[in-house]
Each structure stands twice: as structure tokens, then as C-alpha cells.
Write a structure and sequence with these properties.
The complex is a heterodimer of chains A (234) and B (534). Helices cover 41% and strands 21% of the residues of chain A. In chain A, strands 3-2-1-4-5-6 form a six-stranded parallel sheet, with helices on both faces. In chain A, helix 4 packs parallel to helix 5 and helix 6 packs across helix 7. Chain A has 234 residues and is of the alpha/beta class. In chain A, helix 4 links the parallel strand 4 and strand 5. By secondary structure, chain B is of the alpha/beta class. In chain B, the strands form two sheets. In chain B, strands 3-2-1-4-5-6 form a six-stranded parallel sheet, with helices on both faces. Chain B has a five-stranded antiparallel sheet with strand order 7-11-8-10-9. At the A-B interface, helix 1, strand 5, helix 6, helix 7 and strand 7 of A face helix 13, strand 5, helix 18, helix 19 and strand 7 of B.
């Protein structure tokens, strides 16, 4: 179970929390404003009322020890930058996701050590542009991958000694065997860059590669299971 | 008998297509401000005027040449034609006659020929005495030999320029808008000139050295002094005259500054309207554009993306700083309230606008603008933004086609990123066109080479494209599995190789941009070839 700390209780954090799988993540909501904390408590979240400016307080909720992921959702960019800096100092490996209000702050957050920076307005603007320019595709993705229908993106890491090691992409036959579409492969040893399948000449898979696949969740589960089981068979 | 003939002629004109067409042609050429031919005509006339003035100036110092005379005659003929044409299209005489005729028939009274004639003439006189028509006439008349003395009036041709240039017209509009202030000032100035000239005349005339020999000299001196020009050809010699001069100079400074300030104020008042008009006239040249209401963060982002695409758009925002920013970014923008009907109408919501984006930060404004736009145009695409979940249904009810919640999308992204960062970066890269690889749609047209083909026959793999799925509203595909309902259509994910494409199906393919373009080209080429064979 992964531990997630959400700093700042507002509309955005409510959205994010509602989309996280409660079975997989243990979520704690942290805020320094008493009303927010009270509201979060009423909604049934685990809460902590601490001052994010004090390192000892941050340690007391588990930053630097048990917390894996940190969401900086304060409304002020300066607060988010400060929190990111403090948290990064406490834990080098923490996964920090922060929002920004103004675009100039994005660079500061990156310097402060955030792993992912989310600009809600920029995303929203992009989205509107997509709706205008490519209504069909946007529509499909809204209803399937991002929406109610069961069509998901997933990433599958090839484990050690897997039967997939040293096989070619063309041998995978995900489309016919599993009803999945392989979008691309990330070769961790080379770079973080995603290699699209359509692009490449037949690639050979190796341990540690990440397959990015698209399909119904049942098929994804089946594929994941097979990938893991085969490793025990061999 | 004559009356009957005239009424008959009027009916004939009304039914005549060629008469109507030729009148419409000249109307478009001369008067219709939105016609395409008018700007060329205006330019041509401006050229003629400049040419004729050039000949006038040339004649002052040189002998009139025969060639110049012919050209002058030609120009004059054009002017006269223009005058007569304008006279003709100013009113529809036959319609006036018919109206009168029908009225008299309806009321069962006798059709009065003279009454009708009076009406017709009154209408035409209205044209003759309009300021522009007078200027036109003055530009023609001086060339008539017996009236050669009026040659100076040829300069009036320059006034004709007002007709052909909107910026010159603007100046007169500005002056007209301050009519009251200017009139007051003029009266005061006239009064002052009168007092000053009379008193200086009284003081100076008896003086033998004085050059003021008449009241006209005195008026001339007063105006030269008042305008702070002061040639010094006439100077006061008596103490009384000098006192008058001092008073006149002091007062005239006030008058001049007052006059300047009136003009500046008038131009300042007119400026925003002017700028707006410029924006609108620029907008009129676009065939299709998008209206963006609200230039906040979201509006800025959309504008940036759209301008990258070369898509035209106009920004409407109530807040001055936002409009200022939009201007600095080089976008067309107007500062106004988008929830007002006339603002949206003049922004072209019913003419050329293909979509309207309500992306202000305020939900109430967005709902209101959405409602207003839907009311004005039933078919326009409306995309609205809201911050609160409760307002989504309200926006749909108000007529929005799409509703977007920034925090929802951001939340979704954050949650997805937490679970599967690699996959998510990939897909958002594709969706946002950041990667080289794009996802696009390809339509199956009737008679295209894709129609009635099975997926396996397409050889998409060879073309380095991968098929994600097919969008179709065709019920023939219902038996296939993996279908997802999306509005009225179905999305068939990962279709089987034996899936047969039908007309109007849409393929969703992933691949390099030029790969997809090439695929489309091939389809199109094939379709054209097939048509030729048929």
C-alpha cells in the first residue's frame, strides 16, 4: 500500500482523491487551515493539521519515512514552492506532484525538486483546443480512457526471466491474443523516451522494458498475470 | 393616358431583371460599403482627383497643353457620370410611383400624377442638397467654360476625397461630435475679433503712420494676432491700440488652448470606438473564426494554441488589463461585455463564427454568455468552462456543447500520473501533439478505396500506422465486440481483421503526421481516379 500525502484541501484535491484507488493508496489530507481540516474530516478523510513551514511537523506526518507521494495543492504558488523545497530536502526519493497558478512558477517548482508540475489552466486550454480541432478523438478518449467506459491505459514492466525477454515485438500478437493494442515501449536502459511501436523496425524486448498498452481492464489484468506467471513456469 | 403609360413603365421596370441588376451593380460600386468592388472604385477616383489637381497646378505656370485638355475632359466626364449615377440610384422612382398608384387604388381615389411627381422630385432634391452631392457638383461646374471664374472651386475636388476615404470622414465625425463646444467657442471668438478689430480701428485709423486704412485691415490684423501668427506688417502705434493688442493676445492664448483641448478630447472619446471598428472590419475579412470570451489563463492558452494553428479568433473581455495583454500578444480583442447581445452580434456570432468559448473565471458569466450565444445562434459550437461540479448541468441546459472543468481535468491527470507515469506521459503527449506521433481520424467516404474493405486488406502495418479503432454510427457493426457508446456513435476498439468498413466510418489511427497525411492523400487520389473511370 502506498502512502500519499495531500497538502491543501480544495476542489482540486477532492478531484484527485476521488480518482485514486482507495485499496492501493492510503491518503492523508494535510492543511494548516482549521476549516479545511474540519471539512475534510467530515468527508471521512484521514487528516492532519500541521504547519507545513516546520520541518519537524512534516516529519511527524511521515515525510522522509513512510510517505511515497506528495501532492502540493496549495492555492499560493509560493507555498507550493516552499513545501516542495522542504519535502525534497527531507526525502530524495519522494514523488512530488505540484500545481501551479502562474506559468512563471513552473520553473521554480522544477528547481525546487517537483517531479511533475500540473498547470490546470494550461491543461484546460489544451483541452478546449483539442475539442475544437479533433472533436472525434477527444470525444472517444473522454468517454473511454478518461471516462466511464472500460478502456484503459496500462504499463507492464517485463520482469526478470520473463518469457517475453528476447522476444520480438511482432511475436507479441497482443491484438489477437488479448485484444490489447501496444502503443509503445520504454527502454529504461537507454532513455525514458517512449518508442512508438508503429515507428520501429521489429524490436527485441528485454528485461525492464515497459510496455504501454491500451485495452479493456479485464484483458490488461489477464496479460499482466500471464507475464508474471510465465516467469515462475520457466 | 400619360398616367397610365407612366404606371405601366414603372411596372415594367419593377419586373425587369436587367434594370434591377444594373442598379444593384452601380449600388455596389458606389455606395455599398461592404461590397468588394467599392474599394477599387474609391481608389480609382482618388487617383483621378489627384491627377486633375495636378493639371490645375500645372496650368497655373504653364501653357495649357492639348493633351492635358483631353485628360481634363475625360476626368470631368467620369465625374459627371458618377454624379448622375448617384443621382439615379439614390431613390427608386418607379417604386414611389407604384406605391402611390397602389395606395390610390386601395383608397379608391384618383391617382394624382402631380402629387406623385412632387414626391419623386422631393426625394431627388434631397440628394442634390446633400453635402456630398454639393461638393460633387462644385467639382464639376468650374470646368464649364462660362463659369471659368469659379476655377478656384476646382480645389473642391479635394473635398471629394472625403467620399472615398473613411479616415477623412472620421475627422469630420469627430468635429461633428463636438458641435456644441465648437459653436460656443466660435461665437466667442467672433465676438472677440469684432471687439478687437473695431477698437483697434477706432484707435489707429486717425494715426497717420498706421497702416489700418479700413475696417477690413483691422479684422485682418485681429485674426493674425489672435492666431498668434503676428506677421508684423500691421502694428499698433497708439497706447490704446497696444492695450487692445495685449488683451487680445492674452485672450487668444486661452481660446487656442481651449480649441486644442476640445479636439483632443473629441479624438480621445472616439478612439475606443474607432479601435473596435477596426477590429470588426478586420474580422469581416475572415471566413471562419472563433470567439473567445475571457482572456484569463485558460483563454490565453487556447489563444496561443489557436494562433499556432493559424486559426483566426477574436477575444472579448470585460477587464482592461486582460484586453491590454491580448493586444500585446498581437491578438484581435475588444473590451466589452460578452453577455450583451449586440456585442456578440457585432463580433459576428451569426456571421462567420464557428465556435464560441466561454472561458472566464466566473461561472455566472459563463452560463450567461452560453445562454445568450445559444439564443442568438442555434448551430454554433459552444464550449464552456466551469469551476464547480454543480454548474455542469446548468451549462448543458443553457446550451453548451461541451463543458470543461479545469480542476477535474487536472485532478484526473494528477491521479493518472501517480498510477502510471510512463503510459500517461505517452498518451498525453500524443493527445497534445507534443510527440512526433499523432493520433488522427481518417474518414471513409462513399466510393473511396476503403469502402467495403476488411481491416486486414488495408495493410496499415506496411504504412507504419496502427489502428486504434473505428468510430461508426452504422448499426451494421453492432455484432462486433469491444464497442463503446460515445454519444450517438459507437467506438469499436481494436477491430478484428475481418471487420468490414462502411461508408462514413471513421478510422482512428496512430502514426507519424506525414504517414497519416500520405495515407489520406492515397485515399483521395484513388477516389478521384475511380471517379474518372466512371
Amino acid at each position: 500500500m502506498k502512502q500519499v500525502a495531500v497538502f491543501g484541501y480544495n476542489r482540486l484535491s477532492v478531484e484527485v482523491i476521488s480518482r485514486l484507488d482507495k485499496e492501493q493508496y492510503q491518503i492523508i489530507v494535510i492543511d494548516h487551515i482549521a476549516e479545511h481540516i474540519q471539512l475534510a474530516e467530515e468527508n471521512g478523510f484521514q487528516v492532519a493539521n500541521i504547519d507545513f513551514r516546520v520541518d519537524d511537523d512534516l516529519r511527524s506526518v511521515g515525510i522522509g519515512s513512510s510517505i511515497d507521494t506528495l501532492f502540493c495543492f496549495f492555492e499560493e504558488d509560493s507555498e507550493n514552492v516552499f513545501l516542495t523545497l522542504s519535502a525534497r530536502a527531507l526525502d530524495k526519493n519522494l514523488n512530488i506532484i505540484a500545481i501551479v497558478e502562474t506559468p512563471e512558477s513552473a520553473e521554480k517548482l522544477r528547481v525546487a525538486g517537483a517531479n511533475k508540475i500540473i498547470d490546470p489552466y494550461e491543461i484546460c486550454g489544451r483541452k478546449i483546443h483539442d475539442i475544437l480541432k479533433r472533436p472525434d478523438i477527444t470525444n472517444i478518449f473522454d468517454h473511454t480512457v478518461f471516462g466511464r467506459h472500460d478502456l484503459n491505459l496500462a504499463e507492464v514492466v517485463i520482469p526478470e526471466n520473463s518469457y517475453l525477454d528476447n522476444t520480438y515485438v511482432s511475436q507479441l500478437q497482443l491484438g489477437t491474443q488479448y485484444n490489447l493494442i501496444l502503443i509503445g515501449i520504454v527502454n529504461k536502459q537507454v532513455s525514458e523516451q517512449l518508442n512508438f511501436v508503429v515507428e520501429d523496425v521489429d524490436r527485441r524486448l528485454s528485461v525492464g522494458d515497459i510496455l504501454v498498452i491500451l485495452g479493456p481492464s479485464r484483458e490488461i489484468r489477464a496479460f499482466k498475470k500471464d507475464v508474471e506467471n510465465d516467469f515462475s513456469k520457466n | 393616358m400619360l398616367t397610365k403609360l407612366i404606371v405601366y413603365a414603372a411596372y415594367y421596370l419593377k419586373s425587369s431583371e436587367s434594370y434591377k441588376n444594373s442598379k444593384l451593380f452601380f449600388y455596389n460600386l458606389l455606395e455599398n460599403p461592404s461590397s468588394t468592388s467599392k474599394p477599387y472604385f474609391d481608389m480609382f477616383m482618388t487617383g483621378l482627383i489627384v491627377l486633375s489637381i495636378f493639371f490645375l497646378l500645372y496650368d497655373v505656370e504653364h501653357e495649357a497643353s492639348a493633351m492635358g485638355g483631353y485628360i481634363e475632359q475625360g476626368i470631368l466626364a467620369v465625374f459627371a457620370c458618377e454624379y448622375l449615377l448617384r443621382f439615379w440610384i439614390y431613390s427608386d422612382t418607379h417604386i414611389i410611383i407604384l406605391e402611390e398608384h397602389e395606395k390610390s387604388q386601395y383608397l379608391n381615389i384618383e391617382f394624382s400624377f402631380y402629387k406623385t411627381l412632387r414626391k419623386v422630385i422631393a426625394k431627388k432634391m434631397e440628394y442634390i442638397f446633400s453635402p456630398f452631392a454639393i461638393i460633387d457638383l462644385l467639382a464639376i461646374l468650374p470646368s464649364y467654360r462660362p463659369l471659368r471664374i469659379l476655377r478656384v472651386f476646382l480645389v473642391f475636388r479635394l473635398f471629394k476625397l472625403f467620399r472615398y476615404s473613411s479616415s477623412a470622414k472620421l475627422f469630420s465625425d469627430v468635429l461633428a461630435s463636438k458641435r456644441f463646444e465648437l459653436l460656443t467657442l466660435m461665437m466667442f471668438t467672433g465676438f472677440l475679433i469684432f471687439i478687437a478689430s473695431v477698437s483697434v480701428y477706432v484707435f489707429e485709423y486717425p494715426e497717420p503712420e498706421s497702416k489700418i486704412k479700413s475696417l477690413f485691415d483691422a479684422v485682418y490684423w485681429a485674426i493674425v494676432t489672435l492666431a498668434t501668427v503676428g506677421y508684423g506688417d500691421i502694428i499698433p502705434h497708439t497706447v490704446g491700440g497696444r492695450l487692445v493688442t495685449i488683451l487680445l493676445i492674452l485672450t487668444s492664448l486661452g481660446i487656442l488652448s481651449f480649441f486644442t483641448s476640445i479636439l483632443i478630447a473629441a479624438f480621445n472619446d472616439k478612439m475606443p470606438v474607432l479601435r473596435e471598428n477596426r477590429v470588426y472590419s478586420e474580422l469581416e475579412r475572415y471566413k471562419s473564426f472563433i470567439i473567445i470570451c475571457g482572456y484569463g489563463r485558460v483563454g490565453q492558452e487556447v489563444a496561443r494554441q489557436l494562433s499556432n494553428d493559424g486559426q483566426k479568433f477574436i477575444i472579448i473581455d470585460k477587464k482592461a488589463p486582460n484586453v491590454e495583454l491580448a493586444k500585446r500578444d498581437g491578438y484581435l480583442s475588444i473590451q466589452n461585455d460578452a453577455s450583451k447581445n449586440e456585442v456578440l452580434l457585432s463580433a459576428g456570432i451569426c456571421r462567420g463564427a464557428s465556435a464560441i468559448l466561454c472561458v472566464t473565471g466566473d461561472d455566472v458569466t459563463n452560463v450567461y454568455v452560453t445562454l445568450t450565444s445559444r439564443n442568438l445562434n442555434k448551430n454554433i459550437r459552444i464550449i464552456s468552462r466551469t469551476n464547480r461540479h454543480d454548474n455542469v448541468s446548468k451549462l448543458y441546459q443553457a446550451g453548451a456543447d461541451h463543458v470543461i472543468r479545469p480542476f477535474e481535468i487536472a485532478g484526473l491527470l494528477a491521479a493518472e500520473f501517480l498510477g502510471q507515469p510512463v503510459a500517461f506521459e505517452a498518451i498525453s503527449g500524443i493527445l497534445q501533439n507534443q510527440a512526433d506521433i499523432v493520433m488522427e481520424t481518417v474518414l471513409v467516404n462513399e466510393g473511396s478505396c476503403l469502402d467495403n474493405q476488411a481491416i486486414s486488406q488495408l495493410d496499415l502495418g506496411d504504412k507504419k500506422l496502427s489502428l486504434i479503432g473505428v468510430i461508426s454510427a452504422n448499426p451494421i457493426h453492432f455484432k462486433h465486440k469491444n464497442k463503446y457508446q460515445v454519444k450517438q456513435q459507437h467506438f469499436y476498439f481494436n477491430p478484428e481483421p475481418k471487420f468490414i468498413l462502411r461508408n462514413e466510418d471513421i478510422l482512428v489511427v496512430l502514426g507519424r503526421k506525414y504517414g497519416i497525411d500520405h495515407f489520406r492523400d492515397q485515399i483521395e487520389k484513388h477516389r478521384l481516379l475511380a471517379r474518372k473511370v466512371l
